[in-house]
Amino acid sequence: MHRKASKKIEFAKKYISLTLTKHVQESLVQSLLATPSRRDVDVPAETAKLVTLDANLIWFADEEFNASKQREWLDRYIREVQS
Q: Which residues contact 51 (CB under 8 A, 6 or more apart)?
């Protein structure tokens, strides 16, 4: 696949840099309960109970496996839930 280079690469880099600042990361944790990308983010105890702070505990779906099972899961959903 060929990707067309963006004309706004500098803007994208600035956006990423901004979103990774400590202040923005703390705001994201507080307002969206998002797992912070930084380890030095201050997370209040009440919020810490609601977010994953240990990167080793973050789970990422296997997209290839999910795609291979999509038909099977859809058929089962139709059979068991919709009938």
A: 29, 33, 34, 35, 36, 43
Are 25 and 43 a contacting pair, CB within 8 Å?
A: no
Using CB atoms within 10 A of its CB, is residue 25 exposed (0-12), middle (13-18) or buried (19+)?
buried
Q: Enter the pTM of the model.
A: 0.62
| Residues 44 and 53: beta-carbon distance below 8 Å | no
Coil, strand or helix: which one is 60? coil
User: Would you kindly state where each structural domain of the chain is located, as residue ranges?
Assistant: 9-82
Contacts of 50 (CB under 8 A, 6+ apart): 33
Q: Is 33 left (phi over 0), alpha (psi -120 to 50) or beta?
A: left
In tens, the pLDDT along 19-75 reads: 999 999 999 999 999 999 999 999 999 999 999 988 788 888 899 999 999 999 999
